[in-house]
Amino acid sequence: MGRILAIDFGTKRTGLAVTDEMQIIASGLTTVDTKELLQFLKHYVSTEKVERFVVGLPKQMDNTASESEVYIQKFLEKLSKSIPEIPVDRVDERFTSKMAFQTMIDSGLKKKQRQNKALIDEISATLILQSYLSSI
């Protein structure tokens, strides 16, 4: 089995999370400058066995696509050309940023630490991945 890598895509920063090789535990990996995301993913899959990508699917409350979906679609096209051998699944990511922030509060992080947007993105990716794992 290979790892599953989750992507919480953002126009500036992108949060990443991965499973263990047995695909049981979702853990935050890092946050990457979105401009460097494809390069980071190419390097990561060359050193780790990745079975699947899971990318957040941002939706509005009325179930329509969020405005950021346009940027995600462009990224997905580049991803499928760069790393065509790894399939991509999508997961509804509504409320993940709010849940990530609440997780930070619940874990006792100080206000200064909770303002770290990169950490919020990484936790959001972990929540997306955990949601995916719960659905399979």
From TrEMBL:
Keywords carried by this UniProt record: Cytoplasm, Hydrolase, Nuclease, Ribosome biogenesis
CDD domains registered for this protein in UniProt: YqgF (cd16964)
SMART domains xref list: YqgFc
Domain YqgF/RNase H-like: 2-100
Subcellular location field: Cytoplasm
Chief subcellular location: cytoplasm
Record-listed E.C. numbers: 3.1.-.-
Superkingdom of this protein's organism: Bacteria
Top-tier EC class: hydrolase
Chain's role: Could be a nuclease involved in processing of the 5'-end of pre-16S rRNA.
Family, as annotated: Belongs to the YqgF HJR family.
PANTHER family: POLYNUCLEOTIDYL TRANSFERASE, RIBONUCLEASE H-LIKE SUPERFAMILY PROTEIN (PTHR33317)
Protein name: Putative pre-16S rRNA nuclease
Organism: Winogradskyella damuponensis
Gene, per the UniProt record: ruvX
